[in-house]
Amino acid sequence: MHPHKPHYDRHAGTAENKHFLKRISRQRIDPPAVPGGISAADLIDSAFLSYNGGRLREGCQLYAQRMLAPDCTVGLALSGALTPAGLGMSCLVPLVEAGFIDWIISTGANLYHDTHYALGMDLYQAGPSLPDLELRENQVIRIYDIVFDYENLLGTDKFYRTLLRADVFQQTFSTAEFHYLVGKYLNEREQQTGLKGKSLLAAAYRAGVPIYTSSPGDSSIGMNIAALQLEGYKLNIDPFRDVNQTAGIVWDAKATGGTSGVFILGGGSPKNFMLQTEPQIQEVLGLAESGHDYFLQFTDARPDTGGLSGATPSEAMTWGKVDPDKLPGTVTCYVDSTLALPMITAYALTRVQPRPHKRYIDKLPELTKKLNERYAEVRKERGE
Questions:
Q1: Active-site positions?
Q2: Which of 95, 199, 265, 318 is a Cys-bridge partner for 100, taking CB atoms 3.0 to 4.6 Å apart?
Q3: Considering the entire predicted model, what is its pTM?
């Protein structure tokens, strides 16, 4: 026997081995046969046991059992072109209406394409291998395997430019305040056309859910606002108001004895903007806080490439974004959001009763004031 090589007797310590195995195990793998007609929620609980299927089950259970507790404030970070694929009306609208999402950070593109549906415009399924030059010659726009008429863009642009010339828009907004007012008019349009339930912006207006855009100039909505500024209109977006309002939402959720959960679809700028609420509270404002309590992300990005979309909850913990004591309440599932979102929507709506809407949009001035007052106290304590 090599003098430096430890010897393991596989027949010794059987009781200790079994105790260790039991300690690290959750349940024996012995699923029932999958029957026809099973619900999505039952399928996830019974057959999604290991690998990314296991992480998807853990994510669904984390969301339903802990993040949807009455005292938890749930923020959704939304990236990728999900609304053009119909996932706004099929999944996000039902989640908002059920009170399962309390505030949102989205790319502007998702909100722009969401508007098509509120205006009664059609998008179509196609295939991923299409003759793009021929599409251009026929004025057809493609988003991977989704196609629609170029007139959808022109019509949506015309809608925004006409709407945003109104006197009520000639002021400075946070992006949430701006989207809430847009949602009011889209809700009215849905009511007139009988298309209620098609638009995320309209649903968020009805439920009082603030929707922020972390990069308001990076979408066709922002492009149309920029054009109106060239015309001399006074509509302006203040992204720094967004920073304080989102920090105020999280600060209030935690300071009043509740918890904060983040639900991240994809990554990118919406993910960072949502997670930076905690460093804003702790690092910049100097308020006592420990991080978000729950972290759930569906992503296909890897952590080793240096992109934030693949950054893990434990890495976020080092920045103060996630409470280190709550790391067991985090799940990262490496799966396409277009697969995971319908599954978790069906799971949550099956397992959890609707919650009252928190209507944070109505509380933003109050929450910002409370955050500012506490910040003033901290500055005074520090002699600043």
A1: 321
A2: 95
A3: 0.90
